Amino acid sequence: MKRTINKHAVRRRDMVRHVPTTFAVITLFWLLITPLAHAHGTEITAQPDGRTITINALFDTGEPMAEAQVLIYAPDDPQATWQKGVTDDAGLYSFEIDPALAGDWSINIRTAGHGQWLYLTVAADGTVDVNNPDDRPAWVKWSMAAVVVAGLIGIGAWSRRPQEQ
User: pTM score, two decimals?
Assistant: First the structure.
């Protein structure tokens, strides 16, 4: 008895076998291109001087974030905007902390779709501590990249394994 081979079934099986490799290539391409697409990251710093806080907002190119929107949220009502403002042409914005409102303050600086959150902790004695959650150590960033690369290598190896008939 002669066995016939369905050409469509063979093509479908070959296409399915290449899906993980195609996915891995597309993901790798996306990871390489994404940093180029984000032309402007942000570097936001805060300098406390007594009760006055001065925010310096820059793009990662060093260009000031002129006229960026600044929204400040106090610890007593973190859902409501405590103060609104706009940075000057040099990317600077200053405001005074209310010493009666000790706790965690949230500040959002944003312009043209680019921005960052900045967090301040004000102690009962009026001292201010600046916390920036976006400053991950380099080893964390490299570890995340290594995990992604290892996953892509694993997907590639899995897709090239001998197929059971």
Answer: 0.59
